[in-house]
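The instructor's notes for this session suggest beginning with a concrete chain rather than abstract definitions. Hand out the sequence below and ask the class to guess, before any prediction is shown, which regions might be ordered.
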Amino acid sequence: MPDRLLLRLASDGGLTWLRQVSGARVPAVSTAGVPPAAALDGADEIVVFVPSEDVLLTATQLNARNRTQLLQALPYAVEDQLLSPVEELHFAATQGSGDPIGVAVVAKSKLSAWLDRLREAGIQPDVLVPEVLALPVTPGRATVMVEGYRAMVRLAPWSAFTCILSELPDWLAQAQAADVPVPLVVHDFRAAAALALPAPIAAYQERQHDPLAFLCANFAAPPLNLLDGQFASRHRQARGTRWWRIAAALATAAVILAVANLGVDVLQLSRKSARMDMLAREAVRNAFPDIDAAQLARLGPEQLMRGRLERVHPGEQSSGLLRVLAQVAPVLGTTTRIQTRGMEYRNGTFELALRAPDVAALDSVRERLAAVPGMKAEVTVANPSADGVDGRIRITGGTP
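After discussion, reveal the predicted structure:
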């Protein structure tokens, strides 16, 4: 059994509550008034007992393919027992499959008034159940609970009534006349003397205390819940809906963050691409100073380089220069510490003018170029200066 908060709503709107803690050895004692916020927040389930005199209990035989169909058919299955139009009434039925089906009927206005009273007190119930269904059921006996001016009688699982105390003998006499077996087990919560009743008494418990504790002690799983049908989505499922909304909000936030991170990555890559394009244009401008800004704006660096080389060495690019450039470019493209100052191709020999931070970095580029199949590379010039080394690397070969 989960930790439950159980409340009793009186006809005048008064509240009494107690908390059932799973595994507790000491019986709970009820407290009058509205439960504190800590008790409401800490409860796994909030069950409210409502006045039974406002609820009709009955049973019916009904076949339905699903619960929605069952709730739609209920009003017409018990219509002959009703005094009010079905449009003004709310119907609840037992959960699961069973025969017969237990039914509770209450005026929609009364149910709404109960929920409004609970809402005013900051209470959102999970279960609303007529208090008479918390009385114990014993085959062949009737359970009577007497308190103050009223009495509740449960004759069978779905046969019960509530009346003022002065009318109890007449109601019991009618039950006897209808051949209803009513040996009585009476729980009397008054300080007065025992009642004289027109029925056999199987047991009589006088001067009992704490009616809510008594109801809770005999109440396990709710046989039905008045928060059914049109009222279910607004109350019983409200907590679950709240958590689903929180989960949906968190999922939305995660998607927004992911999109934002992706946008940042795209922006960074765009900036890097723009920088690489700028460096390529500067390299072409340095290699060919006669190229003007209009040409650079109209054609890309690769197109300008290819066209200029075609004009300078019209027969060699396809067989020599372009192949060497294709082999040299990957090495220079991954070397961030080296600046290309110029290049020259003549008679199958390719020379690179480079600026390196030191001789070791220059020699590292040479080694990487020499590692290309069929290519030979040697440093021909290495002039140290204040901010690095100006060097030249001569490349020959280039045919695997």
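Then share the key points. The domain at 314-400 is CATH 3.30.1360.100 (Gyrase A; domain 2). The first strand starts at residue 4 and ends at 9.
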